[in-house]
């Protein structure tokens, strides 16, 4: 395992214990596996009381509460033995679990436990000056890694301990805020405290701190409003009034009490000459909205200035995402924090008309702003940079470098002063500044719908979103939350007041016109397409071609393997290309090794492909999906068709059932889109075959609506290709989907069509398959005689063909009819035959169904032990294969067994579990579970 990052003050070697988050045991910085929840709970008990005896009874009560097993003491002794082996691996100086009646004692240096280290830091902070107190409390707060003990949330210990540790963190946080208020950091605190008050709305101290920070930041009305918000909430929810401390603070705000004034920052006296104070920031943009998180991050970065290192932040993101707007907005908000001035340079990194500004030119301009005469500016770049750093030494200056092209353009412009801060915007990530200069990168995402609509309202079209809320939300979606696109859309609405939002939505819905509609006719520079053009033209030809071909990807995400097929290259090369495009923010990586594009960039890429023949590239991508889907489905259930694309696959990364399900889960939206794209482009053979390859996954996950959509497309393509095999399989698949979702008449119609095509093509095997399917629906429609005839016909055909897999299906369905007819022994015998055949075929999903059916019949026969065993077996198999529906059916049967034995409490629990799963899956079997639960409430 890789070493963990170690917080300040943590032991450098040996053992370290972390409970302020998921429980972790580190040895020399490397995490060690901890085992079960019970082992972790036992260790946590000992860690929370180091060097103290914890009794055996308390350990048992903590781990098992009121229902300990008879062997609880033996089990705990085994857990202790396991922990002793772990501790023994750390050497003679490691912790030790000592047996001390009536329990155990953990002998350990308390400083090696993060919770005790945090308490020590919090205690040490009392009495320190504000700056040191803030630093020490910040160090204590850094020990929390998230919600505490999240890996043992089901235990009693969590309920006992977690609230206390959470309260300790909040107290430390409030103390640190008090220290920062004493230091005059109220501007940075407003955003942080707003978030905290939203999270803990009834915590009066946080509200008071937010009131004070807002008042000192010049927001007197907001300070008052926060008091009234809390007062109303306390009254409505608890029937209380704010406490005396908060009421006193409110009265001080009302009368502008001088005691509330902030400590003043004082800059050093001028030495020798009075230096000019530059104020070069361009005006902040009007109508700025959102970005609360990013503003808060910048505020937190500014707060770190006291730690003695120069500050460098990079705002990065796609063209038009609002990097400059955010930078200027924040810079104006905090300009008072930089009393020695604000420098600004537009580096023109992506200017279509002019070359990027060289570092030498930028330095010349800024030296002049700092009072250096033109003739005194050095010729050599290094000398200019040295003079620039000297002038900024010991000065508190904000330097905003807008639209940088690369790290080399920025590096000479960095001051050496720990007092100054540099804020850079760029379409690239500028990783070089991260590595060499310790830059903090803040990637900007597009705006969420609510903020996007607010931007439309503020950008000269107030009220239109309120009159057409649905259209405004759709307009925000069509603009992809991109601020530049939203501002252009707002400008178009403002230019024609009679035009409704829905009219513009209608125009933008057509992808072919969308980018053209997001232009301003009299301003060539204000255009989404132009912003994208500049980024695209800076690409190497290979990366430009890759970007264009990404416009063909039907889904919203893609992997390097898929792009390798699309571009006819190998996965490592595709990965390098995608990383390069990600650096330029033309693609994003929302999760490791999975990439995506902004919707408008996708439209732009597709526009670039208009003149190209892209059929071969799309067919390569679809063949990739066919090959991997075919490989993955074979881990889920037997294939039972002749389709085989595995030979076209590169060495597969999928090696077991879990990985196969993970691949389908991740790719499912893309597979739906791929079927639709193949159909739309006339690649009908690929469309229906790709739909068929999803069948095994659909049987496990049961996404009804997607299933019907995919198979409807597949059936239309099979008909267009005049492929009888495709027509049979697609119609049958639609029948299964409608049957399992409770739409029995529709299911029978699709099965009947599948049957007719099979008969017309003299396909005995497919005909028998459709008869099995028809029998299952006829049975549920209570047409038992017809169902039995179909089952018997299919059974004869499959036995004559030697097809044991489909023979098992016929046996199962025949047993269903026999069960309803009261022929229970015959039904159970046929089900046991089917069980053996499905086990041999390794079809876990259907095996779970048959086991549940065996359980039902055994219960009807009064063999409750056998019925319970079958349902337990079904549950185990369903858990193994990941089938939620089969799990729910097993819980339903286990509840029936408990009901027959008179154990109503157990029956209720099991039926409630079944009901929850059926409801989550949208299954028509919800009614069965509800009927059982309702019957419990009705007197016999």
UniProtKB/TrEMBL annotation:
Pfam families: BTAD (PF03704), TPR_12 (PF13424), Trans_reg_C (PF00486)
Keywords of this entry: Coiled coil, DNA-binding, Transcription, Transcription regulation
Alphabetized Gene3D superfamilies for the sequence: P-loop containing nucleotide triphosphate hydrolases, Tetratricopeptide repeat domain, Winged helix-like DNA-binding domain superfamily/Winged helix DNA-binding domain
Transmembrane segments: none
Cross-referenced InterPro entries: AfsR-DnrI-RedD_regulator (IPR051677), BTAD (IPR005158), OmpR/PhoB-type_DNA-bd (IPR001867), P-loop_NTPase (IPR027417), Sig_transdc_resp-reg_C-effctor (IPR016032), TPR-like_helical_dom_sf (IPR011990), TPR_rpt (IPR019734), WH-like_DNA-bd_sf (IPR036388)
Start and end residues of each stretch annotated as Disordered: 260-279
Domain OmpR/PhoB-type: from-to ranges: 7-108
Residue stretches in coiled coil: 814-844
DNA-binding region: 7-108
Record flagged with keyword Cytoplasm: no
UniProt family annotation: Belongs to the AfsR/DnrI/RedD regulatory family.
Record-given protein name: BTAD domain-containing putative transcriptional regulator
Source species of the chain: Saccharopolyspora oryzae
